[in-house]
Specification:
With 347 residues, the chain is an all-alpha fold. Helices cover 69% and strands 1% of the residues. Helix 8 (161-179) runs antiparallel to helix 14 (310-335). The chain is globular and about 50 Å long. It starts with 24 loop residues before the first helix and ends in a 12-residue tail after the last helix.
Length: 347
């Protein structure tokens, strides 16, 4: 599941987890990624692992693009990812800790996820990985817009100078990344950009739907159910629009990429990200993952000879700084006192 909170709220927290960890010194230490005055090494490694695994995902998709269509590789990779979560789901059901209401609650988020995943993977057939990943970070703008519209408690952000500063920087960064692209008018580029922008909107819609549907549930269980539904949807689309038969001609290396990408980019990345959030809260992991486009660029430079002109790199940095400031503004909102009478309006 992209980029970066599949079964988390719209700012990257596990579903149902308050943005306010605690106002005690211990809580402040957790938010800073420290425990007992020391850096939480396990949480830091988990964050870095999630960053690496989510960064190689676009590389794997681009590598597989000459061998199979986007519909087929989506279904194949997600099937592998689904198999990772099934044992955990089976154990939870056996122990009686699984909330059966998730089967119904996950339907709408899963539909949004299927659409988003389809658009996301298809865009790599028209764009190179780093450029596409950079543009997808515009999902922060859509998450903010949807949250302001749906959750009354978050409308306080409208009065936040940090939030508007982050929003302005993000918009300026996106404009620069696009305007300074040398081959902007090349055939297929415009369509790839269009797909990426719609994928960013659908990513935000998915996160919003997940936040509303999975409040108070175990993020691992909701992730498992969404993955099952997503696999079913992707296989239907692959059957309708893809050429599934081409998968029979995949080389051993290509099959290895399918399996490794499904395990790392879809399954382990989420597992590590959730583990980090449980130990140090949501803010630091979200900020660390913002480095993804630059790591993707470093890998793509050697794999696909991709490069960005200096002004694009600068614009990308502005975009990510703006996103970081927006996350910071929301975290400040989470620690601010709220009127209890508005709590019931949040969902």
């Amino acid at each position: 599941m992209k980029r970066p909170g599949s079964s988390s709220n719209c700012w990257g927290r596990p579903v149902g987890e308050s943005s306010q960890t605690t106002d005690s010194p211990e809580g402040n230490a957790i938010r800073c990624g420290r425990t007992g005055g020391r850096v939480d090494i396990d949480a830091t490694l988990a964050c870095l692992g999630a960053l690496v695994f989510w960064s190689v995902g676009p590389i794997f998709i681009k590598y597989l693009s000459p061998f199979v269509d986007a519909w087929t590789q989506n279904a194949l990779r997600y099937t592998v990812g689904c198999l990772f979560w099934l044992p955990l789901l089976a154990v939870a059901m056996r122990k009686g800790t699984f909330d059966r209401r998730l089967w119904k609650a996950a339907i709408i988020p899963s539909v949004a996820n299927v659409i988003m995943q389809s658009l996301w993977a298809t865009a790599f057939y028209f764009l190179k990985p780093a450029f596409m990943t950079m543009l997808l970070k515009t999902n922060v703008l859509w998450v903010a817009a949807f949250s302001l519209a749906v959750f009354p408690r978050e409308r306080v952000l409208v009065r936040s100078k940090r939030f508007w500063t982050g929003l302005g920087l993000s918009v300026a960064g996106v404009a620069g990344v696009l305007c300074f692209k040398p081959d902007f008018s090349a055939q297929g580029t415009g369509f790839g950009i269009f797909l990426t922008m719609i994928a960013a909107v659908m990513w935000a819609a998915y996160v919003l739907a997940a936040r509303m549907a999975f409040s108070g549930t175990d993020s691992r269980h909701s992730m498992a159910v969404v993955t099952i539904y997503t696999v079913a949807g992707l296989w239907v689309l692959a059957g309708l629009f893809g050429d599934v038969g081409r998968a029979a001609n995949l080389t051993g290396t290509a099959w290895a990429v399918v399996v490794v990408s499904g395990i790392t980019s879809i399954s382990l990345a989420h597992a590590l990200y959730y583990a980090a959030m449980r130990r140090i809260g949501a803010t630091l992991p979200a900020l660390i993952v913002l480095a993804q486009p630059f790591l993707v660029l470093a890998i793509s430079y050697f794999m696909f000879d991709e490069s960005l002109v200096p002004l694009q790199l600068l614009s990308g940095l502005v975009l990510l700084v703006g996103s970081a400031i927006a996350i910071w503004a929301q975290e400040h909102l989470g620690r601010a006192p709220t009127d209890p009478k508005h709590d019931s309006e949040d969902l």
